[in-house]
Amino acid sequence: MKNLEQQFSEDLSITQSSNSWGRNWRRIKARVICNPLTGKSKTLPKVKATGVGESYFGFDPISKQFKVLCMTWSRYGIPNTHRILTLETGKRLWRTIQDPVLPHFYIGDGICINGVLYYEASFKESRSYEIVCFDFKIEKFSFIKLDKDMVRGKKLTLFNYKGKLGAHQDIRWRTGKFALWVLEDAGKHKWSKRICALPPFCDKIVNTHMMVGMTVTGEIVYSPYAGYLSNPFDIFYYNIERNLLQV
C-alpha cells in the first residue's frame, strides 16, 4: 500500500467529529478538506457563529460541484442556522439556507449518496430519532422515520448499499450479531431488514473493530476502534452471502 503523507502548518490542529455538546469549538482555527490521493487540500472560510456543531461534505451530481453543509449551534445547544459552501474557483462564501428545519442534534457521521446527505438526529420536542436528508441539488431538507424495530438511542452506522441508504445496528454489543437495514422507499419510510452474525471465531474483531462502511461488491468493512489503532493495522472484510471474513 502506498504511503501518502500530507503536510499542514504547525498551528493547525487535527480534530475528529464529536457528539459531546461540551466540546470547546474555539480550539478549531480552520476546517480543511484534504484529498489523500492527490495530497491537495482546501482551507474553508471561517463561519461567523458562537460555535460550530458539524460540517458535512457532499457532491451535487447535477452541477458537478462539491459542497459543504455546516450546522452552527447556539450557546444552549440548539441549532440556529445551516450554511452551505460551494467549492469552486474564486471567492468562497458561506450562504445561509432558507429552508426551515426543526431544531435537532446530529448523531454520528453522515453519508452522501447520489447527491443526498443522510445523517441520524434526535429531536428534542418530539423526543424522536429520525434520518435527516439534505439534497445538495436543490438545497432542501427532508426527514425519514426509523423503522419501529430499530433500537432507539443505539447508534446507527450509515453506509451506501448499492446506491441505497443502508444502516448497521448492533443487536447486542460486541457479540457479532447485527441488523442491516436498507431504505427501500424514502417517501413511505419503508425499510427492509436482515439479521446477520459474524462467524463464532471472530471474538477479537467485535472487541477491537467497528463497522465503517460497505464496498461496492457488498462486503462490510471493519476498521479498528481509536484505542486499538497501530501501525500498521488490519482492516477486515465480511462477505454476508458467503459468511466469510478476510483481511
TrEMBL record:
It comes from the Eukaryota. Pfam families: FBA_3. Residues 29-245 form the F-box associated beta-propeller type domain. This is F-box associated beta-propeller type 3 domain-containing protein.
